[in-house]
Description:
The complex is a heterodimer of chains A (516) and B (498).
Chain A: E1 2-3, E2 10-14, E3 20-24, E4 27-29, E5 32-34, E6 40-45, E7 52-57, H1 61-77, H2 85-101, H3 103-114, H4 118-137, E8 147-148, E9 155-163, E10 166-170, H5 176-189, E11 193-197, H6 204-216, E12 223-225, H7 230-239, E13 245-249, H8 252-264, E14 269-273, E15 278-282, H9 288-300, E16 310-316, H10 320-333, E17 335-336, E18 344-346, H11 352-367, E19 371-372, E20 392-395, H12 402-405, E21 412-418, H13 421-429, E22 436-440, H14 444-453, E23 458-461, E24 480-481, H15 486-491, E25 494-502
Helix pairs in contact in A: 1-7, 2-4, 2-6, 3-4, 4-5, 7-8, 9-10
Chain B: E1 3-7, E2 13-17, E3 20-22, E4 25-27, E5 34-39, E6 44-50, H1 54-70, H2 78-94, H3 96-107, H4 111-132, E7 140-141, E8 147-155, E9 158-162, H5 168-181, E10 185-189, H6 196-208, E11 215-218, H7 222-231, E12 237-241, H8 244-256, E13 261-265, E14 271-274, H9 280-292, E15 304-308, H10 312-325, H11 344-359, E16 363-366, E17 381-384, H12 391-394, E18 401-407, H13 410-418, E19 425-429, H14 433-442, E20 447-450, E21 469-470, H15 478-481, E22 483-491
Parallel strand pairs in B: 9-10, 9-12, 10-11, 12-13, 14-15, 14-19, 15-18, 17-18, 19-20
Antiparallel strand pairs in B: 1-2, 3-4, 5-6, 7-8, 8-22, 13-21, 16-17
Helix pairs in contact in B: 2-4, 2-6, 3-4, 3-6, 4-5, 7-8, 9-10
Amino acid sequence: MTVVTDLPPRVQLTAPSGRKIHLPTGIFIDNTFSPAAEHGSITTPNPTTGKHLARVSAGTKLDVDRAVIAARKAFETTWGRNSTPGRRSAALLKWAELIENNIQELAELESLDNGKPVWAARDVDIVDSVACLRYYAGLADKIEGRTIEQVEGKKLAFTRSEAIGVCGQIIPWNYPIQMFAWKVAPALAAGNTVVIKPAEQTPLSALRLAELSIEAGFPPGVINVVNGLGSTVGESISSHMDIDKVAFTGSTVTGKRIMTSAASSNLKKVSLELGGKSAVVVFESADLKQAANWASMAILFNQGQDCCAGSRLLVQRSVHDELVAMMVENFEAHKMGDPSDVKTFQGPLVSKAQQEKVLGFIQSGLDQGAKRVTRERRVPEGLEDGYFVSPTIFTECEPGMTIVDEEIFGPVLTVQTFEDEAEAIFKANDTIYGLGAGVFSSDASQCMRVTQAIKAGTVWCNNYMALSNAVPFGGMKQSGFGRELGIEGIKEYTQTKAIHWNYGEQLSWPIDGESS
Amino acid sequence: MPTLNLTFPNGGKSTVNTDLFINNKWVPALDGKTFATINPTTGKEIGQVAEASAKDIDVAVKAARAAYETSWGEKVPGFERGKLLLKLAEIVEANLEELANIESLDNGKAVAIAKAFDASEVAACLRYYAGWADKNQGKTIEVNDTKFTYTRHEPIGVCGQIIPWNFPLLMFAWKIAPALATGNVVVLKTAEQTPLSAYKMCEFIAQAGIPPGVVNVVSGFGPVAGAAIAKHMDIDKVAFTGSTLVGRNIMKNAAETNLKKVTLELGGKSPNIIFKDADLEVAAKWAAFGIMFNMGQCCCAGSRVYVEEEIYDQFMEVLEKVCKSLPKGDPFQASTFLGPQISQLQQDRIMAYIDSGKKDGAKVRIGGSKGSGDGYFVEPTIFTDVNPDSKIAREEIFGPVVVCSKFKDEADLLRIANDSMYGLAAAVFSRDVSRAIGTAHKLNAGTVWVNCYNQLNSQVPFGGYKASGIGRELGEYALTNYTNVKAVHVNLTIPCPL
Lengths: 516, 498
């Protein structure tokens, strides 16, 4: 982070299409953009070219403090109990509309900052994000409690699902807009206010979303966006004494730190969506071509930078060679290159650091005796400075190898074999993680048994990576706890109050063992 | 394509189609018949609309069934259905004035109320159910590890819906919103007294992009088109709002044909209880609102008022004053609260009840006569000293007529309040809210208001106990009216018993 006292409040970027994109650069609090209190700033490069892209404000604890004050005030006056579900729903719907109206611009911005193909940002990420806002807008007036049988004529007991309050939300760089939507939509629909920290690798699209939120009619202080580093802004959020809940998506190692800070400070509620090392299990009865296609998607989509990427392929020995051959063919077939090209499927990784990390993992695979069966694909001419990593398959992998045990977060697939169903289940579960898994088999009973036996929050049966705003998503084991999406997703942003209302019971005094 | 060009007293203009709306097209009735819709404020004909016969219902059902199997139902994900309902809500909101004008002309209710309440609530109801469209979820149910069991919430299919004339727009929304959200298609018959506003809604339905055949609307008469719907062998469910008398017929017709599912929202004779510790002025205002709103043409009208003895005289004075002060006259005047009753027939019926009340020895405190002018006006009427078994005390009048009694003993009062074949709504007024809650729990009614009246919300269920109906509309509860639950048992390891 660098102190820059005269950081321009707006910046203009030019996308490969020629489109000019204008962005505010400041810290967003109370519907206003301003420089960080201590004038910190960060730069973000264009991962396709390696060149400088933009400099934006980076906050510190002071900015988080100011954001929380604004969020608390809004919660107590214009949002929370003082807003109606209809109001919250209307604002979310308006925001969805505005995002939709600006979808091309946002997609190009996302691609510039993250490296993902423009078409993927637009047709997958942002379309889903808009739908996510709409999904939760439709839930805002459906957060219900219960009335519970008590003694007739004396007492009425009921529950209310109340908003939690000020929620700190820390999001990752792999799906900046989509992770932003997944976080804010249920929180806001339920009446909470938010202080959200985008990833330092991808600070840009959140600023544009924040700008649109003003037009959508959210009162000041309801949404606050503080860019900056995890070690300052992130830590300030997780240890803040007036933030009621922290939601984090990112690495398991950071998740543990956040939970520790939350516990040590005010015991704020915590939900974590962390890493994964998800198994894709292919049985011999599977449609192998389909399994190969889905398994390729599972590890190559978003350049493998997906918490639920299918990074461990477990294939029944009888069909190993056939499947691996298909996978190798697939890994040659898609276009790797310029994300602004509609034909591109694989862009660069998000940063130099990530590229070096993944290359390090690949080297460890080679060093530890795994067999690389893919050839090194050449980066298109002119993009040699981009953070590309060639899609890689390792066979003859064993637990104990770094590439098998640890989350790589890149386009690197490890392959193991199994003999029978029991071994497949054992190997699939042999990980500290439990985020996703895939099962490929044409035997429905087998699918049933295996999907039930695998310890993962999402299990795909004869497909992969397909998510839906209506279906909950989250981890088991060290992949985290809490669920996003679906109706479960909004429950994470409410707390239950039980009310026991006496309307007929008289209490006499004194009380003793006989009278009571 | 026949239309009516309407010019409203407030200067507004509108063109309304008058043919049947089937497959997003306007088609005349097969036998070419039409009937008149009357402006109840003037007693004059507004124009002719198509009169549906059983054959037209057949055509509509065919269109609906085809749409269900190709372009709605499970062919369109809930999320998409929700989007279309949101679009419809948006269009409604952009056209509130026009809708209100048409409603007021055809129904007689005050145009200001038609806009601020009826038409606005249509948009709210559509939005509410749009939000449910992708959230009608089944369950997975743990039995044991030998099988995998789950439920699916599926649409029912082709739903016949028959709506009344008291809140034409609102009843239209209450019916189509949950049905469409859950993936059903509809054949809806409007009331013969008020066919116009629904036809305007049909234009918006097509404009919103809702596929042809999903919503089909016919104007016509109960004994012909309504009966045809209730008896149709390819309608899977019928939903009816109207009188208990007709509701019985609908249920019989459904039973005698294909046992289609039936939900009914029928009449009421709702008791409004005023305890002595009520805020008297406020309670009297609510009581007046409870019976006089919509000229008493509410199924849940608070048509029986019971006042605790100690405050009876004082209360009745305020009630009288408030009822007398309600501005009545031309619904297109901004200040009007009371317009005419819907029709000659209704006016006659109400007057017959009033006469029978007088004959039974009840005292007319105010009103008791027709209003002046060409429209079907009836003066707001308060009866006291009423025989609890008389017709005016027991039967639904559906007009601006309230019977008031005093009570002393609470237990006795509760018995009397519950002593009705109906059970649609009730109200309790007391400053002691805890006590009011206790009383509310003892009233046999589907909606009980505490310290208010006629307050409904799309999120909260509404429907009757006893002969006031079957099933609930509004809230999440309405979804079950339009859902078929399928249980799926997938055997994993159970060997065949043989």
